[in-house]
Amino acid sequence: MMTYLLVRKKHLELKRTVKSLIPSRVRLWRYELYERGRYYPELLLSLGRTFECPFCLWRFRRLRPAGYEYPVLKEKQVIGASYHLNDVCPRCMSNSRERLLYLFLKNRTDLFLTRKSVLHLAPEPNIHQVLSRHTGTHYVSGDLYERDVMVQMDVMTTPFCDKSFDVIICSHVLEHVTNDLQAMKEFYRVLKAGGWAIFQVPIAMALTTTLEDPTATTDEQRIKLFGQRDHVRLYSQDDYVKRLESAGFDVHVEVYCQRLPQKDVRRYALISEEPVFLCKKPVAK
Prior knowledge:
alpha/beta; Rossmann fold; 7-stranded mixed sheet; two-stranded antiparallel sheet
């Protein structure tokens, strides 16, 4: 373990040094050229019948791998961040958690059946396309850093009036937020009474309490504790639910894959253990 961390530390230091010597504009060009160069060859080589993407409807024999292999993710049994061999669609780049969220929205909610106002934070590209094109939604996308959204915003101080939205979709954001309870309260404030939200985060199944350490501020410290350089905590499921409930939500936790035939779980390359956190604002409030 110690040897791995030392090697990882030296690797990160070298990576930062190299990055500091290359202008960011040049680095972005390099990544873009690399992705463009690999796209079509990989797409053709990946075609098959094993997996199917519910967004683009293409079928593949393999998907791109994704996730991390840091020791803490395995030790704490983290769902939603660990490495998976078949995860990212080679054509539309949807990942397993985006596909799971889309299928849940489509099959377990009334989002596409009635007219609703929707706030979508850190919008996943494929779900963004589906919702922005759906004539039954008044759709608002938001993010703190990304410019290709409708509203640049901090989830701890949202720029919306009380009871502005019927639905809030926020996946893998709260683990980045320093004051997550404040963000939860903001979501509760801008959600209409009777409205609902989905708040997805990585969940550490081996933890009974959420792991936090405000003194962990470097990349190395956060990777060691939380499994990603820009995460500020690792949630336990029970504690995460309690935090959402303390903000006022009624929380329903569903392992959606248990409702699906196993052949569909495999076909869509879903993480079978991943829970979905459906949160409702009581009508009386």
